[in-house]
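Q: I have two molecules that I believe assemble together. Could you output structure tokens for the complex as a whole instead of separate predictions?
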Amino acid sequence: MAAAKRSKPPPPNNPVPVATDPRVLRRAHFLMRLSRAWDARFEAMARVGRIGRWYSAVGNECTTVGTALALGANDAISTVHRDLGAVLTTYLDPTRLAPALFEDGDATPWDALRPSPQSLLDQLASQVFGRRGGFTRGVDRSFHYGLVRPDWGIRHVGMISHLGSMIPVAAGLALANLQDGNDRAVLGFIGEGATSQGDFHEALNLAGVMKLPLILVVENNRYAFSTPLSEQFACEKLSDRAPGYGIAGETIDGLDFDAVHAAMNRAVARARAGEGATLLECMLPRMRGHAEGDGSYELIPPAEREAYLRQDPLVRFEASLIERGHADVERIREVTEIARGIIEDAVERALLTEEPALTEATRPVFAPGEVATAFARQSTEVTGG
Amino acid sequence: MAETTYIDAIRRALGEEMDRDAAVFLMGQDIAAFGGAFRASKGLFEKHGRLRVINTPLMESGAIGAALGAALVGKRPVLEMQFADFVSCGFNQIVNNVAKTYYRWEAPVPMVIRLPFGGGAGAGPFHSQSPEAWFAHTPGLCVVAPSTPRDALGMLKAAIRDPNPVIYLEHRFLYRREKEDLPEGDLLTPLGRAHVAREGRDVTILSWSWTLHESLAAAEELAKEGVSVEVIDLRTLSPLDEETIFASVRKTSKVLIVHEATITAGFGAELAARVADQCFEWLDGPVRRVAYADRPSPYNKKLELSLLPGRERITAALRKLARY
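A: Yes, here they are, computed for all two components at once.
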């Protein structure tokens, strides 16, 4: 197997001039550091068995934050398991969460709609621990939930474990925009593994036929659990599939914030202009295993692993901030420390929260109405008979 | 009053609900200008346009997933599977994504999936199946199977208005054979409520859809022999209206379950179990089933007819049961 054939990132096919707004860079830096601090905390807990399983997003931050930052209020996102950066970017008003790090004029109109960032972070931490205060109150794990609150400008649909199944759902979110005649875009995330599933094809074909305002970001981290690219697909780049669907496609270096953000801005502009969908393949390093401690990381040849670790997108982003005069070493340290403190506090608070009430296990499967009422009348409710 | 066929009733329900609520839209294969394989949506594309009567590419899984996405942001999609048999291509989206969403994060999923199902047309193994048990087994899905134009209309309208996913089984054999005079107005049939289609004293039949009509014919036959048969039209299979079923069983003390789907692990098995559990003291005979043999549906019409649970088999089963 020619596993190494595509192990190097292809050159970005769309070099972009560096001109990103410093307000965007400040926000991006903080959100990426927040995501990284979260992963560091949960990886540590996974190592000592305090949580059952953790799927780390280390290495994906530039892509998840860089794309999500191009969206506005009530654009929608659909996420899978390494998209914490996009979730935080969508949910949080960083200017309220870490006021010391931001300047007047950094807050956006969307921030004014968003609820208390602390409360959402606490809910997210409780969600991951399966506690009472989480979005599912203990009935489903980590990022397996959604948060649709148009009044907050947030339309987020999370994953089921059948990852490819979420691509048509993202297409459906985009379809609703088309029906409403608005110019909102939808950002869906998927790994390269799920691009082999039938739902990838059905959703992108529909997106092409209907010109849906959908941007599908493929986080290509080169291994699906243990399966390398050479055993996953035979095309050179996944974006080569885009013309087959009649949609736009780009493969970019997912470690280059400017390239990611610029490509996403182009894709969003196409979506808003009614020009249809984009398949955006972001090449990422495999910096962690599938899940922490599941043995999949060790399968990657050591030299390849070391090369990936040297490509850390956050280190690269911070170096570019310094190089371009947006930050100095002291500022980098300050952002890192504040982000770590915020996550530490959220995790500590969540660990003190209660387990869900046992009645959550038997809560309704139907939304209130005559079906729900009829369900509750049955003799099989709820003991199983 | 106008004579309305079963398929007319479905078309009327779709049209009325689309007029009533702008969030309602249709998705399926060949449903737009063509009006669908059975013309259920004929005329609606001309009135509502391509964004509310959506011709999809040939897809099931992706269409159901897309409908879920739209439902999560306030739409009320009504999907047509061209034949119920093809819903298997969308099975994962239904049982894992659509059905589990409300339990997981309490987002309502108002969605109807219409399944033209059933045999009698010599259509072979891939255009004749009765898949209700696949879905009745899955928590979070409402499964309905109307047998009359009145209920086809009222239950489809109720299904579209309900905030939950509804699997709507419409029998192809009934489309143009069942006719009723239906009044104008907003006619709704409650979901989760069975209907006593014929009152009787000696034996209870539990059935739905096409076999309900065969059961009524068999009951008529038994009446000539002095056996009074009560026929319950379940209408909604899940959640089940046990109150109506158990009241009938406790009155007659004998139960025959009749369905077109194959017998093993069919929905009749669930009915038999609940009756045995809740009505044991009242039973005067075995809980019997008349259903399809455990075979795919053969193509040749004579072969198919030999397996379909029609009135002769029901009549024979009733005679035996009445002797207990």
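A: One point stands out. Chain B touches chain A through 58 residues (CB under 8 Å).
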